[in-house]
Amino acid sequence: MSNTEMTRNILSVLVQDIEGIISRVSGMFTRRGFNLVSLVSAKTDTEGINRITIVVDADELRIEQITKQLNKIIPVLKVVRLDEDTTIARALMLVKVAADANNRPQIVDAANIFRARVVDVAQESVVIEATGTPGKLRALLDVLEPFGIRELIQSGQIALNRGPKTMAPSKF
């Protein structure tokens, strides 16, 4: 093994939209002992094609193995390892924060600083929606924590290359 340093990697996978494809992809990770950080599947602009964004912590050898194994799954059309320097990656987070009349303005100000949105206000809480990199979302949580986080959910990352480069030919 030439490089055993574990790094965060984002793989973008185009697949046919068939029943069970997510199970087959996630099962490959389970069978091979690879640890998924996140897996997000969504429709693309092409009918019948989905895009799966996989985030995994792995060294170079394991990323090569993962890519080869993914390419062996028949409904997989294309696997691309996204370069951190040329990729836009975002996750979504909803966080419910304890709030009252006294601290609500501070919570709203904190949300605004992070370009997050208040999506629900109740007598004893505020729900904030934020998108961004894992670091940005962690920083927002650090600011909100003193107020009391009541509930939290965060999606996996989705990602696209910057500029004109695409995974598939454009329809236009």
TrEMBL record:
Belongs to the acetolactate synthase small subunit family. Keywords: Amino-acid biosynthesis, Branched-chain amino acid biosynthesis, Transferase. GO terms for molecular function: acetolactate synthase activity; acetolactate synthase regulator activity. PROSITE patterns: ACT. GO terms for biological process: isoleucine biosynthetic process; L-valine biosynthetic process. CDD domains: ACT_AHAS (cd04878). It catalyses: 2 pyruvate + H(+) = (2S)-2-acetolactate + CO2. Pathway: Amino-acid biosynthesis; L-isoleucine biosynthesis; L-isoleucine from 2-oxobutanoate: step 1/4; Amino-acid biosynthesis; L-valine biosynthesis; L-valine from pyruvate: step 1/4. This is Acetolactate synthase small subunit. One of its GO terms (cellular component) is cytosol. It comes from the Bacteria. Dimer of large and small chains. Gene3D superfamilies: 3.30.70.260, ACT-like. Chain A, domain 2. Its EC number is 2.2.1.6. Catalyzes the conversion of 2 pyruvate molecules into acetolactate in the first common step of the biosynthetic pathway of the branched-amino acids such as leucine, isoleucine, and valine.
